[in-house]
Each structure stands twice: as C-alpha cells, then as structure tokens.
Amino acid sequence: MKKFVQNEEFQLGVCYYPEHWPEELWADDYRRMKEMHFSTVRLAEFAWAIFEPSEGEFSFELFDRAIDLAHEHGLKVVLGTPTATPPAWLTHKYPEVLNSTQEGVQFQHGLRRHYNYNAEIYHQFSARIVRKMVEHYRNHPAVIGWQLDNEFNCEVDVFYSDADHKAFQNWVKKKYETLDNVNQAWGTVFWSQTYTSWEQIHLPRPNPSQSQNPHLALDEKRFISDSTIAYAKLQADIIREVAPHQWITTNGLYGHIDNHQMTEDLLDFFAYDSYPNFSTIFPDKGKNPLLDRKWGWNLSNVRSVSSTFGVFEQQSGPGGWVNRMQQPSPKPGQMRLWTYQSIAHGADMLLYFRWRTATMGTETYWHGINDYHNQPNRRVDEAKTIGRELNQIGNDLLGAEYQAEVAIVRDYDNEWDGELDLWHGPFSDRSNTAWFKALQYSHVPSDVAYINDHTTLADLNQYTTLIYPHPAIMTERTSELLEAFVKAGGNVIFGCRTGYKDKTGQCYMKPFPGVVSELCGVTVDEFSLHNAEHPAPSVKTRVGTFQSDGFSEVLQVQSENAEVIGSYSESHVVGKPALVKNSVGNGTVYYFGGVFTEESASFLLEELQITSPVESWLVLPQKVELAIRKDQNGKEFIFLLNYSDSEQTIQVKNMRTNLLTGEALQGEVVMEPYGVVIL
Amino acid sequence: MKKFVQNEEFQLGVCYYPEHWPEELWADDYRRMKEMHFSTVRLAEFAWAIFEPSEGEFSFELFDRAIDLAHEHGLKVVLGTPTATPPAWLTHKYPEVLNSTQEGVQFQHGLRRHYNYNAEIYHQFSARIVRKMVEHYRNHPAVIGWQLDNEFNCEVDVFYSDADHKAFQNWVKKKYETLDNVNQAWGTVFWSQTYTSWEQIHLPRPNPSQSQNPHLALDEKRFISDSTIAYAKLQADIIREVAPHQWITTNGLYGHIDNHQMTEDLLDFFAYDSYPNFSTIFPDKGKNPLLDRKWGWNLSNVRSVSSTFGVFEQQSGPGGWVNRMQQPSPKPGQMRLWTYQSIAHGADMLLYFRWRTATMGTETYWHGINDYHNQPNRRVDEAKTIGRELNQIGNDLLGAEYQAEVAIVRDYDNEWDGELDLWHGPFSDRSNTAWFKALQYSHVPSDVAYINDHTTLADLNQYTTLIYPHPAIMTERTSELLEAFVKAGGNVIFGCRTGYKDKTGQCYMKPFPGVVSELCGVTVDEFSLHNAEHPAPSVKTRVGTFQSDGFSEVLQVQSENAEVIGSYSESHVVGKPALVKNSVGNGTVYYFGGVFTEESASFLLEELQITSPVESWLVLPQKVELAIRKDQNGKEFIFLLNYSDSEQTIQVKNMRTNLLTGEALQGEVVMEPYGVVIL
Amino acid sequence: MKKFVQNEEFQLGVCYYPEHWPEELWADDYRRMKEMHFSTVRLAEFAWAIFEPSEGEFSFELFDRAIDLAHEHGLKVVLGTPTATPPAWLTHKYPEVLNSTQEGVQFQHGLRRHYNYNAEIYHQFSARIVRKMVEHYRNHPAVIGWQLDNEFNCEVDVFYSDADHKAFQNWVKKKYETLDNVNQAWGTVFWSQTYTSWEQIHLPRPNPSQSQNPHLALDEKRFISDSTIAYAKLQADIIREVAPHQWITTNGLYGHIDNHQMTEDLLDFFAYDSYPNFSTIFPDKGKNPLLDRKWGWNLSNVRSVSSTFGVFEQQSGPGGWVNRMQQPSPKPGQMRLWTYQSIAHGADMLLYFRWRTATMGTETYWHGINDYHNQPNRRVDEAKTIGRELNQIGNDLLGAEYQAEVAIVRDYDNEWDGELDLWHGPFSDRSNTAWFKALQYSHVPSDVAYINDHTTLADLNQYTTLIYPHPAIMTERTSELLEAFVKAGGNVIFGCRTGYKDKTGQCYMKPFPGVVSELCGVTVDEFSLHNAEHPAPSVKTRVGTFQSDGFSEVLQVQSENAEVIGSYSESHVVGKPALVKNSVGNGTVYYFGGVFTEESASFLLEELQITSPVESWLVLPQKVELAIRKDQNGKEFIFLLNYSDSEQTIQVKNMRTNLLTGEALQGEVVMEPYGVVIL
To answer: Min CA distance, B321 vs chain C (Å)?
Structure first.
C-alpha cells in the first residue's frame, strides 16, 4: 500500500520542549511560531520521567498546559512516545532492560537509547506509558498524530543483552524449525560449528578471530530488524486501537531496520531527520563531492518508503553534541535551500529542529532557530521568509509526487550481508554515490527502488532504467522479475560481484554472475580485488578510457546478442571484455565487471541516451539540482536548487513564472548563492 | 598563603633507590654525590613492600642503614610515602582497593597507581604505613621533609571502582543536599535523566552514545580532585601531627587535581617532575615550535601554585619505559640548560632523576646520571659542572622571585569542562601556546595566574595585563573582579567563546559573551566552528592580516568606547568586526572572536606596547629565553638560556658580569649551543 | 636430531574437505586430482563435530567413505587432528576450556582457536578424540601421517583464562622453586612488586599503565610456548604409541612457540602454510621491497627447523576472509613461481590450499584451485603444468639440501623480549629484512640459524659468516660459542644494542656491548634512539655514506686488533666511530652501532667479499632469485626464479640444461614473467 503524509494541509513547524523552559516563555514562543506561519509542534518524545515520575505514578499536568496553550494559539501537536529515554528509576530497578556490548558490558542510565527491544518487562512498561498517553490525548483537538519512540537504532544498532540472545534463539527456532536447517543455512559444517541444541545458539559473541560466521551475521541483522519492528508494533497497535483517527509515523533512517516493512505494517507514512551539514564533517569522497546535495540521495531513500513523507527534524543551525559531530554554521540561505531540498524530494510536512537551542545537556550545540538569548537572529529571519513562502504554495504541492524514470535499486539483504563481507559490501556505497552524482550533474531526476520478495513487475515498470550495482545476493525470483522487466523493454545495469550468492549468503556453484548470467549474456572468466597499491586496470570504450575501482572481472560473452562495449587496456587482461551490453526481448542489460565511478556512470547514461527531462527549454549549470513534483492533475512543480556559494546562471528558453516570487523568468536568469526557484 | 620552598639553603640532589642495589655500592654512591656538591637524596617512595613485607609486619632495617649512611656522608633525606605502589599481599587480599575502567575492568597488581582513593580499607592501610614511617623517622637528623605518595593521578586520572561510585553519591548529596538541586544543576530534564533517589547516581558509566551528561562530567572532575586531596590530607595530617618540623610536599602536575587548593590546604610548597625531552615525542604543533622551551610554560604553572618550588625529578638522561615514551638522548649541555630553566622559573630545590639507571623493570630506559656500568660518562661530568656552579650561586638565588607583568589566566572549571566540551575545550591549549610563544619570542617574561572564587583584586593587581583566552564558564564574581581590575587601569584580553556558561556548565540566556558582554563592549552576532576543510576567515588590521583558528565570531559593537581594530576579510562575513578594543575606566579590554595564533598574539602585544623589560641594554636573538628573578633586596638575576644547537650572539650594551663564570660581558657576546648565562 | 620429510617420494597434493561437498562430487574430484599428478590429500583437521557429534558418541562413516575412495583413486591421506575447532556442545557444557582476553572477556563458539591449552578437561577431550581417530585409521593403507591440530597460535597467541593463570603459577613455581628466585628474576623490588605467596602470581593483567613487568612478560611467552608444546605432546604421544609407523608434523609459523624445541621433541618434520600474496596487503617497507620474494625469508626460517619440510597450504588463488585479509588474485604464473619458491627452499612435500573454494563460511574468499562453479579455469591449468613437471623431477629433488654459507642468526629469547621492549625489539625485523634483501639482490643464498642453549660449535661451523643483528639478551654461553666460532675463522656481524641483557632480560652492569664487548673490541660511549623527527646521523666509510636507522651508538675502540671502518659524519658525534672491525684468532667480528639498512648490509658483504656462488658462469638480474639444493651425491639443482611481471635476461656462460623443459641453455636466456628455470 502506497504510504503518504495524511494531513490535509502542508505542515510547517518545529520541535519544541516546553519542559526545558520556564512556563512564562511558552505563550511568547507559540505566538512567534504563528508569526512564522508555523502550524505544528512536535512534543514530548523524551519526557517519560515527566509523565511517569515514579513507577506506576502518572502525571500529565505539564504537557496538558503546554498542549492546551498550543491549541489556543492554533497550533497542531505531534506527540512522541517517550520510550527512547527510560527514567532512572526504571533501569535502576530493572537492569535487564538495558542493552550491552558484544563483550557483555551493560549500558547504563545517563544518555539515551540504552535499552534493548527484547526484555519482556520493557515491553510491559512501554505498553503502559504509551496506552496512558494515548488514552489521555486521544480526544485532544490539537493532537494530530504520533511519532513512535525517537530514531530507532540511532546511537547503536546491535544488541547483546541476555534478552537479545534468548530472543535470537527463539527467532532462529521459528525461522528454521530444525537444527539441521540452521546448520545448513549457516554452513556450520565449516570449522566444526554444527549446533546440536537450541541453547547453543547465540548472537555473535567475542572470538579470537576478528570475524563472524557470515550467514549467522546476516540473520543477526534480520533478527534486529524484526525485533525493532515488533517493539514498534507493540506501540502502534495500542495507538491504532485507542486513537484510530490519529496518524502514526516514526523518524529516522538507521541501520538494521527494514523501514519498508515497518512502514507497510505499522505506519501511515515515514519521516526523516535531515541534517545536510553532516556533510561538512563526513563529506562524500572523490572528485566533485556532492556534500549537502548528497542529502537528495537520503531523501530518495526515504521516498522509496513513503512517496510523500515528513521531515521531523530539519536542520536550522549548526549541529553537534558537546563532544562530537561538530558542524560549522550553515551559511545564509542554506536553511532555506535545505528546506526546499526536502520538499522537492517529497516532504509534505516539515518540522525544524528546534525552536530554541538547549542551554543544558549533551545537545547544547545542536542549535535551533532561536539562540540561547532568544533575541532576533539571522535564522529567525530566514524561517520567517520560508514560512511566508510556504504559506502561499505549500498546499498546492501537497500530494504531488517526485518524477523519475531512472531508479537505483537497493535491497536490505545485500546491504546487511555487505556489512561484514568486504568483497562486495563496500562497493555498493561507492557505486551508488557515483551514479547519484552522475545523475545529479546530468540533471536526471532519479529514485531509489528497494527490491524484495514482495516486489512486483508493476513496481518496476514505472521506470525505464534500473541500476542495480552489486547485488551479490540474487534470488531466482528477483532474477526472473528483472528478466521480465527487461523483456518488456526496460534497461538494467549491473556491476561486478552480481548474482553469486543465495538468500543465506552462500555462494551458488555457478559461474559468475550466477543466476543472472544468462540475462547478462556473460560469464566471469577471472577476477581480482584491487587496492591503492594494486589499482584496477583501466577500461577503454569507443569514446575514451575510464578507471574501474576496487575490483575487476574479465568477462566472457555467452550470447549472440551480447556486444563488448568496453575492454581492459592494461596488465595481463589487456583487450579482454570489461563491459558488455546484452539485448534481451525489447530491453537491454549492461554488465560491468567493476565498481562504478562518475565517469563510467556518465558513459552509460550517454549510451542509454538518458538526459534531463527539461533539456529542450531549460539549461542548467552543474551546481544546480533539478527536481520535479507532479500533482494528481498533472501540474508540474520544477524545483531548481543552487548548492553553491556563488551566483549561477540558468537559461530559460520558454517563459515561466517563479512560484516563490511571482516573477516571470525568461532567457538568462541569475540564481543567488544557495538560491531556490520553483517554476 | 604564599607557598615557597622551606629550606635554608639551595638543595641540589638526586633520587636514589638503595633497595635496587647491592649494599656495597651505597657508600661509593654517596661519596660521589657529595663530590658533585649534591646535598639531598629522595628515597623510599615505592618501597611499601620493604617497609611492610606482610600485613601488619613492619621493617625499617634496610632504610635505616641507607639513611644513616647518607647522614654520615652529610646528605639530607626526603622521604616519599610509598602509597603509589601497594604490596601484592594487600591488593590480593583486599581487591576493593583497586581502581577500574569505566567498563568495570579492575586493575591489578603489577605496575603502579592501580589503587583508588575512596576505599575505606585503603585509607586505613595508608594511614598506618605513613604513621609508622613518620614515627620512625621524625627524629632522624638527616630527614628534612616528606613527599606524599608519588605523582598523584599520573597513569590514570579517572576512577570507577565501586568505592568511587559510592563516594560520588555521597559527594553529590553533600554538595547539592536535595535531588531537585542535582537535577537542576545537571539539567536532567533533558533526555529524561531525572534522578529520583540517591542510589541512582553514579559516575559516568558505559552508554551507547559516546558522550556523557556534560554537567555531571564536570562535577566528576571536581569529585576526583576532592577525593585526591582528601586522600592526600589523610597522610599530610599524620605528618603534621607527628613531625611538624618536617616539611610536606608532593610532586607532579597531572589531571583532575586542584593543585592550588591542595597546596594551600596541605603542603608547604609544591614540586614538579621536569622532563623536557618529552618534547621530542610530543612536540608542540605549528610553526616555530617551542619544544623543550615549552617546559617554561609548565614551570610557570607550577610557579602559580608555589612562588618558589621544588623540582623533584629533573631529567638527566634519555627517558622511556621499555614499551613507550621513547626519548632520544639529551644533547651535550641540555641537562645543564634544563637545570637552569627550572631555576630561572623559580626552583629552589632540584633533584635529578636518578642516580643510576635501573637494570630491571619497566623503567630500564629511564636513564639516570650514571649508566648501568657505573663508570664515568658525559652526564656525570655535566652534573659535576652544575654542582660546582650551584655551590657558588645557589644560595644567592634562594627565595628570589620570578618577575612578570603579564599573566595568562587559567581556571580549573573551564579546563575540566573543556575536556568533554569540544566547542571551547581545545581552544585554550592552542591559545595558551600561541601566547606563551609570542611572549617568549618577544622576551617578555610571563606568569600563569589561576583564578577562582578566592582570588582577590590584589592577586590580580600585580600584573598590568591579563590574557584570559576562552573562559566559557564565567561567574558574576569573576566578571566583577575583572571589571574592577580594568577600571583600575589593567588590560584584559579575551578570545572567542568567553562568558557564556555558568558554574554548572549550563549556558546563560544572554547574548555572547554573556556576563562580560558589557565589559567587552560587544555582543556576538553569529559564529561558526571551523576545521581544516572549512577554515576560518582571515582578519585584517591596520598592520596586516592574520588567521583566526578553529572558530569565528562576528561581533557587534555595543559601547561608545569600543573601537573595531580587526575585521574579517573574506566569505559572507567580510568587513564585519572580529577584534574590538573597549576602554573601561583607566583600562582596556580586547575581545577577539577567534582562537589566538602567534601572529594575533604578537599583534596585540604590539598594540599594548608590551616589550622586553631589558630592551634598553640587552639585545637577544629569538632562540634565547630571558627570565628574571629578584630577591627581597631587589637584586636581580637575569637568566639567558640558549635552546638551540648553534651559537647565539647577544648584545650587551651595559657591561655586566656572568655570575656563572665571573666574566665581564659587554658588546657582542657569543653563547655556546645550549649555553646559559646569568647576569 | 636433523628433521626432514619422511616420505619416499615427493608428495604433491591438496587440502580437501569432503564434508563440505555433496558425496557425488568426491569421485570426480579425486579423479581430476590424479590427472594433475597429485598424490596426497590432507583431510579432517576441522571435523571434530563430525567425528564426535555429541559427547562420547563417535562417528567415522563419512571419513571412512572419503578415505576409502581416496585410496581407490591411489591417493595418500594426511589426517589433521580436529582440535582447533571444538564442537559447540563441548564449549557450551565446559566453558572453562575457552580462552579469554586479558580483561577477562571469554571467547566463545563460532569460529576457531577459541580454546586454551591448560584446561584439564580439554586435555581429556583432546586425548580421547585423537586416540579414537588414530586407533581407527592406524591401519588404513592410505593414511601416511598426521598433522597435529591446525596452526597452533594462529588467530591469538596469548591466553588469559583461569586455567592459564593457574598453570602459569605452577610453571613459575617449577621453574623458580622459591619466591625469592622469582622476585630476583623479575626485579620485583622495583615498584614494590614483591610476591609473598604463589597465588599472588598471575599472567599480565589489566593495569592503568599500558605496560607490564618486562621480565614477567618474557616468561609469559616461554610459558605459552611450553603450554603449546605440552598440549601438542599430549596428542603426539598418543600417535607415537598407537601408530608409530605414521609420521607426525604440524603446520604454521606463529607467535610464542619454540618450533625448534617442539619439532625436536615431537615431530618428524615441520610444515608451513605459504601465502606469498599477503605481501600485497602487508608489503615489506622501504625501497626495493621484496614483496612475495620475502616468503623466501619465511621458508628459510622453516628450514632452520627442518632441513626439508612440508608446505601444507600453498597459495593457489586469491586469499581472504569475508571481512579481512583481502588479497588481489595471483597473476598468471605466480602459483607456479611460488610452488618452486617453496621447493627451492627445501619443500619435499607440497599441498595446495585448497581443492575448491568453499561456498560458505568465513573463508568463502580463500580461493582454491577450483572455483565455486567447478569448471576449468586458469588455476586448474597451472596446477596441471606443475603436476606434470614435478612428476618428472620431484623425486630427484627429494632430500636435497639448500646450500648456504651465510646465516642470519635469531633466537626466541630476544624476539619474545623484544615484543614489549621497543628499545631493541623492532630493530631485529628491520635488520633481518635489510640483510635478507641485500643477500637476495646479491644472489647469495642464506640460511636462518636459531641459537639456543643446545647449539654447538658444529652447528655454527657449517657457515663462514653469521649475522646476528641485535641480540640484546646474550648469555655467557652464547658469547663463548661465538668467540670459538670466530677464533676458528668465522665472521660475526653485530648491530647496536647487542649483549646488554641477561637471560631474565635484566641489564648487565657492564659497558655495552656487555658480555661480547671484548669479542667486538669496543665499548659504547654514548647512544641515542632516533625517530623520523630526530634522524640518526649518517655514517661514512671508505666507499661512501649510508644512513643508520633508529639508533646510534658512539663506539670506543678497546683492542689493538680493532679498526674503525665507519664514522659518524654529522651532529655532535661527528668523526666518532660507528662501525668497527675486530680481528680475533682466525676470524673477524664487525660491530655496527646502528640498525642495518640494505646499504650498510651491502657494504659489509663487499667488505667480506661475499658473492654469488655461481658468479663465474651465471649472470643474474636483481629481479631473479638464485637458490641451490644439493643431494647426497653432490648433485646440484640451481633454481632461478623471476619475481617480476616482465621478462628477465640471464647470461649462462657454461651450457646447462633446464630440467623443467630439457632445453639446453647458453648465452643470453630470456625468462618469462614469473618464470622458473632449474639447471
């Protein structure tokens, strides 16, 4: 079922923590929010100690006053369930709810996310606080929806408490039914690992070998995802039961959760927390880095979960904890740019983090719109501008969908398997970045498409081209699905290491690329890993030469319809095929025996004649992103986003109106640094 | 109360370990010490297993013989209490005395400093061994004083045993009285951290978030300091009671101790262990590094505790453990240079570490004056020279005080808060080094002045200029004190991040620089962190341009008496104020919105017209340090120290005598490599 | 007793895991092995869970069928005892058999080598499974020998379980008899470490000081070696008792085992696992790196244990675990090159690792000869070529011994002491590599000679020259042995840090080089560590200048027969002796006060006029290795190995036949890339 934001109006707003501030500030805060055209506040997601100050004693006074006052000011309220931060009394009395390191060091009270998903007693306490809150606020006219917990699997996405080990045993038992099946799936005959009773089974534990059984390690991630979703379901079920008229979502994009399944099963739509200035401390590597523009990639992933979505924390100032993640301040205009980046990619609800910078605690430097001093500043001004603009055009955008004919394909199995497996795992990120960069710089809007056992041909057929860089794990089902897609006229692009593993992560006894060998029209003759000291041989095509990266496969053509369009140009593999194009039915498959770079991706875009959808009338410089949303009535919104700190000149051949200003644009138009235009 | 060395003569000597050597060597060792004009030996600080070979059994024979023999040779003796190294039988039987890692891994017997300060039973054992020793040696004519323990908080300066967690609970209870006060001070409303019973309170424990509650983390350091001092007091009280005629000190300059408070409360004077060749493995960063000359900074810190002080371990050879801290050998002359460096900065007692290099154990490569082979070597010769020189001039220097009109201001709160808080913490070290370097290279002697709740205006008024680079924590009291200092004609220089936090480490709801905004005549409009990839904008003044470093604040002038003397010269802040001078009463305040470099510090020295006090008659090259001590009668000793491996030429306009040689100096005088002159 | 491979024919073969594959593949696998002229398979070394699926229940069916079928195909079988991988039921029920980290974190089931050598119950289980297997297979006609366990001390070579601490106490008690002796040997008077009861004694445990008592740390390694050998003996004794007609060996070259003692006491010959492509991820540092050619060094070490030896795992494809040790693929020809590298250095039995790449588990990327797909590939072809060649010449080589007149001397005491002691430890590896490189590039075949308390003058007299770079620990016995060797006409070369420690690792109270000072004719006047920022002074000889590395000693000549042949040419030591040649009896001793580089080693080779033994008729380029084996009848086999990826031209002045091709060679002969010639 397609997931989308359930509000009737575009929601702009802010995260607010009334419990952090003297009550006399609240009314002024709300008043100024309204002045900025904010409609919504998110409250309460870390306030368990306020709602339940001691075991079984509940208190709603503070938030009743805060929510009533918000309502008086005409603000809507989203409530977070407060389970990310259990109170001190809880973890002190019931330490079995705490998570541990793999070595068995128990995490303790003091920060957040120190609990585990599998302790029965934590389920009981969580269910009770959620039920109490929902029952209390189900009829409040301001409350429109719920955020489950906060950022599941942020901080830590592995779990090794006793409760987790025990739950894993049960999960394995349920999945495999017999120990023979477990031993088969995990290849335990290797190194005498065979299990002969259920209680011998554990999540990975310390060993002298700096490694893990890879098949167990893959199931570990599936188990964590299932544990997280089961814990979320506990909360979601209560909300659905008690307050079916209020929507449910959660926020974040963290490890070891199948967000697609969670959203499908439990949520109305998905939400994300967007901090593009992380790019200043963790920039993407390589030439022409995308930096904050890379957040379009993250938002594309969010969009694959939920066609329109919420951004529940949109960066509004410098970010950082007292001791890490130290981000420079956003430049003038970047807060607005990033807001429209989120919206261009499908956000129909957007809350800034946060109203005012906290004066205490770990996040003292995770700055909000207002400074500690609470007086006017540049960010307040920028928020006002945005509020005014979205007040005019926000509702028009509502429900309009991002337009893309190309998708980069991902799946959870390969990403989880690839965390341990360095012979394919690291390649996906490099190829995805290379492709996203090539697509961005060519002004070709693109989606991310997740593929799994429920994916249908119809899901794929909305695209003309699928780029699936390194699906080492490839089931027969997926292979058949892709074949059907190609035969019907689609293009599929694979990179090295495709198709050689089954669902358990074991290798097929087939020539590479395994189950898609016939589809690709090639087999792999030989291959090698490469590193900086042993670089991969370069590849020559009709138009020039590009580097592979990290891996090289020598291909052998196995089909009459296959054509070699790139060959190695050095070392002992000189002249041998590196890139093969295979015609199948009405479509085409490209197989490249390497990891993609911006250059090889650009070459393939050219091969496939994939260009900007507005090429005929709009000429854009590389620094400007193009994104298009289209509503039910076919009306298009063309977003142009300038990520550079200098002016950029675009050329508009057919006159259009800038919806943000009402100004008619034609000919050479100058966009200001960090500027935004919506046509 | 002013602290100073309590001896009647200048003491030169050496650390000696009779227990390490065959008894037949002792007499020859003592004889040769006397030949070198050594007057003092330090003994016994690691000898607990000898004094108390099993629980409750005491033995003084070995040290009685060693001390009697020292006395016969005319040597004075300083005794260390041996508590840094509890015997094996003690920690084996009473493991609760051991310290632990934060994760709960208990340290064990085998090296040193593995105990904690809060185990009751360790207090009892420590009190007993100290009392036994003091009672035994109180009347020995050779024994002049005591060193408490050895290098408190060396090796490790955090403590996580059960005894420490428990003691912290009590410390918090005593400090805050109510849980409400604790919750307020630590901002526990943030992330639901509220404490509802005392037993929930712990020192920081493992968590999944790589951080800590910053206010608790600040109190943790205060608690460690208090624990250390309480433990030291236990010993000091016994010595005062039993042997009030013998002085008390301790040695070192390590983390998480308020040495000023400890010295004020317990000690007669403070002592330091000086190893300038650590500079070969941990050089100060940047252009023109100070290297071993940086030890003048350390000695200035020691001098802020104790106007004259002891150096209880002065480097006499290459240093290093078997497995780390591998230092190259000092060059010929450096041992002498460093001796006079200590003395120039205020040492009135100086013991070399150590008589002879140990042939066994972890410190086999922490070389002493004598080699394993015990035959003449270069270091023995150098020690003889020094002994001869100090025999002539040492007593003249006694009590003479280092002269400085400029002080760099420090305080414990900001340094402890800054350990976790990377948004101001790392700046102090960089600015302090920059200032010390600029002062050194301008031949302007400087002090370090620690400021706290007991500091008086009189304490400050001995200086004309105070440099207080980044006091994020700034109380009203300190602010008022500095204001009074300025009004009376003093100069104060601040850098970025000044004045925005209160004593708990929480932020004021005021525009930066918070409580000193009025004093500085500015507020901060906006700011940014910077790093290598996002460098700070450069600053332009009337004389040129310099770089900020790490941080930039855009200032807004708020006072008629304030004048912009430096502005940003690039990026979106171009032209905006970076450096403002404000006239207040008879004095001046400079506020710089960045971290200091040698260039910006030099610019401000020039602004303030601060120059060498002997500029009129003595021209010194950059490589030569100037230091001046003045005795009660106003007699000045002018130390010139050449830190370079090449000759340096100084120009003496008025004839003076080199006190080390009796030679009259005038005109161009050549100092040898690593040479020393005292005028 | 000289150890050598006990087979009557040269054995070529492969490691095979029938338990990993469908039984229907076995016959085809064996058939193809025979086609390749393979004669031997190694089986079963990780199959405990198959032999003993539950406690006390034994099952031999699977391996009976696999071994019978091998026999039917004419293959010999080597069996591994399976103790490297205890079954899950064992470690689950008896966790005391598990090894731990120093911090006490217990390793757990899941990979391999997680057991300890000292748990009594593991001894019982190990003895039983070994006895069961040997009794079962003692009379099988295919089974020729046994491999004990697999790669002792691979993965982890330290042990901290309770059983290990306890065993260490007993080991110490047995070695030292009294606590006084222990305290003396470990220098426990330093830092009050004195032990007063046996139960206070432990293996190194956590402490706050990042170090250990160095003498205890040395004994720790001796204890680990003894524990390993005692555990191996438990197995070897059973095999000797039950199947005295089958030989015994083990494979590997790992830390903390005296392989010489183990081989002498327990084994018929020693075996090694050779993976030269580790050089692609851990290349040797410096100019002209040896890379895969460095494996000649490893093989020389193996040869010092066993004059002919087995290679039980010879690299046949890319190697790597799923998560680390990622090696590029060998180039065409390298598998053959490395095979002959092993044989040239003394291998008389060689098994490839492995028949077919595993499709599951941690070693999915430790590729075998066959790929997952089991179809022809380049490596299969290369194996066929090798099989054909060795089928012709393998038996001729059997028992022929590698010829060398120069040996690099090593000993376990210095290597184990040097692990902790950074003031001499790291120098050996650098000097050994420098010397091996200089010898290789000069085409001077060399041995490694281990020296210990059993070494005799006869052992040394097979060499003309001994290079013993940095023997810090030097006993009187060894010193006398070397003196006798020199007096009889031998040459000995020492580097810095020689001779200053006794067997406990404590320093002699003598001038350096301690007990060999007279032999060397020098004492050390002063010395210094050096690092990149403080480089060692260069050394000038009659032919030029070379760098020392890491350390410099200023020498003083103490003998009339000593001559300074190298002096420092800079810094304050300029002109002082650095390299001294001393004539003693009929021989010569060289003492160099530094760490060796290729340049200083080459200079000394020239000094000693050591050149290629075939210089008169064979001119070789640097890239080609020369190795010579000579059989009982004096017949020489001259191996030429081209390690480069380009052709290399050799010049053969006297006509010879290439034994691999039968071709007569004279004049300029071109070797192909990675080519091999045997004359």
So the answer is: 8
